[in-house]
Amino acid sequence: MRKKHFVILGRVGLIYFSWLLIIFFLSWIFAFEGTKVICYPAIICMVIFVLLIIYTYFNSYWNAQSLKLPFKSKIITANKPKLYSQHYWFKIYRIRVTDIEKYYLLRIEKK
């Protein structure tokens, strides 16, 4: 079965993407506070940010028997994500991994 990529929502997504945005804003701070024309710390931070976004996209997926989050190892689960909400192309799924852990996943699907 094909991998279905998604964006993490909820508490977990907020914390994860907040850390990514810190790297993005640090690169902007380095760029505007630097006195040289080419600010290498800003370029390095921006490259790290772009690589982390690409890594996040390719390591956030689910298939028939597993769920993969970018900050965790692959989770083997018998539960499939259930459609929680839908608005045009945007679909929000909820998957309950354990009694305590549940994740909300945003997926963009064309009909």
User: Mean of the pLDDT scores?
Assistant: 85
Give the strand order, joined by hyphens, for the main sheet: 1-3-4-5
Termini separation (Å)? 19 Å
The number of helical elements comes to 2
Share in β-strands: 25-35%
Rg, nearest Å: 17 Å
Report the biggest beta sheet as strand number plus sense, adding barrel if it closes. Answer: 4 strands, antiparallel
As residue ranges, the low-confidence spans are none
Helical fraction equals: 25-40%
Structural class: alpha+beta
**What general form does the structure show?**
elongated
Find the count of extended strands (DSSP E, 2+ residues).
Answer: 8
Helix-strand topology string: EEHHEEEEEE
Would you write up a description of this structure?
The protein has 111 residues and is an alpha+beta fold. The chain has helices at 10-33, 40-58; strands at 4-5, 7-9, 61-62, 66-68, 75-76, 82-87, 90-96, 102-108. A 4-stranded antiparallel sheet has the order 1-3-4-5, with no helix packed on it. The protein has a 4-stranded antiparallel sheet with strand order 2-8-7-6. Strand 6 and strand 7 form a beta hairpin. Helix 1 packs antiparallel against helix 2. The longest helix is centred in the first third of the chain and has 24 residues, at 10-33. The chain starts with a strand and ends with a strand.
